[in-house]
Amino acid sequence: MMGFALLILILAGIVLLVFLERRPAAPTDYQQKAKTSGDIEKKYMENGPYAVSLREEKVLQGFEKYIIYYPTALETSHKPYPVIVLSNGSGTPLSKYPAVAKHYASWGFIVIGTQEQNDWNGFAAEMCVRHLKRWNDNEMVGDTKSIFYQKVDLENVGIVGHSQGGVGVFNAMTAQPHKDVFQTGVALSPTNKELADHLEWEYDAAQIHVPVLLISGAGGGDDWVVTGDQLREIYEDIPSDKVMVRRKDTPHSQVLYMPNGYVAAWLLWQLQGDEEAAKAFIGNAPEIENNPLYQDFARCIG
C-alpha cells in the first residue's frame, strides 16, 4: 500500500509539472479579465480592427523557430506594416503567451518572436529583424514565395520584452548589429541592474537613443525583479524620451499582460502616429498619470 501511495504521488507530481510547463504565461482571455480605468487604456486593451493570421518557420538555431502573427489583410494588400519584436522572459517562449502577440497584431503590426528561453543578450531579437528583412527584400526565399515581400515597414520597428526579456530589449537596441532599426522599446519589469550583473546579463541603458516605456508591478511586496527605486535608476540612466510607471497590485509575472492597454497605445503612438493613443502619455493631463490603477508616473519627453 505504501508503494502504491508513493507511485500515486510521483504520478501526481509528473502531471503537475506537465501542467505548469504547458500553462500559458498570459491567459487567453486576459483582455477581458484585466481591470482598466481610463478610456484610452480600455480602448487599446481590446483587439484592434484587423483579423490575425499565424506563420511559423523552423530554423537551425537554439530558439527552434520564428513565430509570426500578422494582419491577414497583409496577404492581399500593397502597403508595408510596422513591426513589433517580442523578447521573451526567462523560460517563457512565445508559444506560452500567444494572446499577447495576437493582441498587438490586431492593431496592424507584424509581430515576431521565437522559442528562445534566455533572451537577455538580444540575439533572438536581432535574428528576428534579419529574418523579416530577408523576407521583405526577396520575392522568393529558396523555393518559397514571400508573403512579406515589400510589406515590412523597417522604418517603424519596436521591441517589447518582459523580465529577462526587458534586458533583451535594452541589448537589442544598444549592442546588436541591427540596433539602429528599433524606433522604440517597451521594457516590462526589466531585471534590475545589480541582479542582471550577478547573472552576467549586463546592459547599459545609457546607450539607448529612442523613446522607451518602462512599466513594473507595485504592491504586494513590490516587484521582486525590479523595485520602484530600481526602476527609477534605470529610468534615470536613459538619455532619450522616456516614461515610467508602476501598476498597482500587480505581481511580476502579470506585468507581461496586465498593462497591455497602455503598451499597445504606446506602440501605436510611436510606430503608427496614433494621436489619440499619445494622449495617454503626453499633454497637461496624460491619462496614465491620473489612472488610479497606476502609480509613480514619470516622464521626460522633449
Structure description:
- The chain is of the alpha/beta class.
- The chain has a single domain, classed as Alpha/Beta hydrolase fold, catalytic domain (Rossmann fold), CATH 3.40.50.
- Helices cover 33% and strands 23% of the residues.
- Strands 1-2-4-3-7-8-9-10-11 form a 9-stranded mixed beta sheet, with helices on both faces. A two-stranded antiparallel ribbon has the order 5-6.
- Helix 8 links the parallel strand 9 and strand 10.
- The longest helix has 21 residues.
- About 4% of the residues have low confidence.
SSE topology sketch:
Elements: H1 2-22, H2 30-33, H3 39-45, E1 52-58, E2 65-71, E3 81-87, H4 98-105, E4 110-114, H5 123-137, E5 140-141, E6 144-145, E7 152-162, H6 164-174, E8 182-188, H7 193-198, E9 212-218, H8 228-237, E10 242-248, H9 260-272, H10 275-278, E11 294-300
Helix pairs in contact: 3-9
Overall geometric form: globular
Q: Into which percentage range does the β-strand content fall?
A: 15-25%
Count of helical regions: 10
The CATH architecture category equals 3-Layer(aba) Sandwich
Give the fraction of residues assigned to helices: 25-40%
How many distinct domains? 1
CATH class assignment: Alpha Beta
Q: Tally the beta strands.
A: 11
Derived structural class:
alpha/beta
Question: Which terms summarize this structure?
Answer:
Rossmann fold, 9-stranded mixed beta sheet, 11 strands, 302 residues, 10 helices
How would you concisely characterize the structure shown here?
The chain is 33% helix and 23% strand.
